[in-house]
Design goal:
Layout lengths: L2 H12 L14 E10 L2 E15 L6 E8 L2 E8 L5 E8 L44
Antiparallel strand pairs: 1-2, 1-5, 2-3, 3-4
């Protein structure tokens, strides 16, 4: 084995399987379950926020998550293949047209929210296209 094959085998052993990652895109609200080690104790902490960017590939893949705590924006970057990353859940799908949502940093109030992704949902029974109930 040459040097590149050795490196490739080490990197492959460090990567999480593809089934670990649900399908998500920038604008989605994610729950990141992250293992915290405090001395002898170990616990799982959940960081919920909007996915701003998904950069890198392979072992170098990074997820940048932003959440608001006490009207203050907090961003955290998680290495996707970190062994302390326990689980990723998609809470809500957001509709965005960009790959990087850094413009959300300057927004506040209701303009900070992204609209829900409503693609593929069926029309609600008993309502017309205007949203009002049909019938007499």
């Amino acid at each position: 084995m040459n040097r590149s094959e050795i490196l490739a085998s080490i990197i492959k052993s460090q990567m999480k399987p593809a089934e670990f990652f649900p399908t998500f895109s920038p604008g989605d609200t994610l729950d990141i379950h992250y293992k915290i080690i405090e001395g002898e104790k170990e616990r799982t902490q959940i960081f919920q926020g909007v996915l701003l960017s998904d950069t890198g590939a392979g072992v170098h893949r990074m997820l940048r998550i932003r959440r608001i705590i006490a009207n203050e924006g907090v961003e955290r970057t998680f290495p996707a293949h970190n062994p302390r990353l326990v689980k990723i859940e998609v809470v809500r799908r957001g509709d965005s047209r960009r790959a990087k949502l850094f413009y959300l940093r300057e927004r506040f109030g209701k303009s900070r929210r992204l609209r829900d992704q409503r693609r593929g949902l069926k029309h609600v029974a008993g309502q017309t296209a205007t949203g009002r109930e049909s019938g007499g």
